[in-house]
Amino acid sequence: MSVNNVKRVKSSEIELKDRLVSIQRVAKVTKGGRTFSFSAIVVVGDEKGVVGYGLGKAKEVTEAITKCIDDAKKNLVKVPIINGTVPHEQYGKYSGGYVFIKPAANGTGVIAGGAMRAVLESAGIHNVLAKSKGSSNPHNVVKATVVALTQMRDAYTVAQHRSVSLKKVFNG
């Protein structure tokens, strides 16, 4: 990710919940035939603004998931949440996966598809409208969603970045 304002978080400080997004059986063709292994993607979060994803591959499903969780704990980022929703509209792109995230009124719920839903719920976002376009590959959708969330900025961050007061951000 080429975003400058990404705030990394240590996994030892918080209690994380993990969600399995996808698991696939993959094959490597060798001289002796096909060798099967499992590839998985997991999203972890504390449901209070911290989220991360991890990839893992192993001969057994449980080993692949364990590797994913360890990888996800190394890639945690802080996401701004205001009143249970995102601060503003945001597009995200990773490879062929495009996502659009929009704030929603209280009581709306998480209106999002499979892989996006896992990321948004793990981050602790309760009301959001989201759309996935382009690739439906869970790897690309999860990564695009995390890119979009890391590009979000709340009013306080904008005020600090511009070196002005919080009132001036809203009044112009």
Can you walk through the features of this model?
The chain has 172 residues and is an alpha+beta fold. The protein is built from five helices and eight strands; from the N terminus they run βββαββββαβααα. The protein has helices at residues 61-74, 114-123, 138-150, 155-162, 166-171; strands at 17-30, 33-45, 50-58, 76-78, 90-94, 97-103, 110-111, 128-134. Strands 1-2-3-4 form a four-stranded antiparallel beta sheet. A four-stranded mixed beta sheet has the order 5-6-8-7. The chain is elongated and about 70 Å long. The model has no long low-confidence stretch (mean pLDDT 90).
Shape: elongated
- Tell me the number of strands: 8
Assign a percent range to the helix content: 25-40%
Roughly how many Å is the radius of gyration? Answer: 18 Å
Order of helices and strands: EEEHEEEEHEHHH
How would you write the strand order of the largest sheet?
1-2-3-4
Q: Number of helix segments?
A: 5
Largest sheet: 4 strands, antiparallel
Describe the protein's topology.
Layout (H helix, E strand, L loop, with lengths): L16 E14 L2 E13 L4 E9 L2 H14 L1 E3 L11 E5 L2 E7 L6 E2 L2 H10 L4 E7 L3 H13 L4 H8 L3 H6 L1
Parallel strand pairs: 7-8
Antiparallel strand pairs: 1-2, 2-3, 3-4, 5-6, 6-8
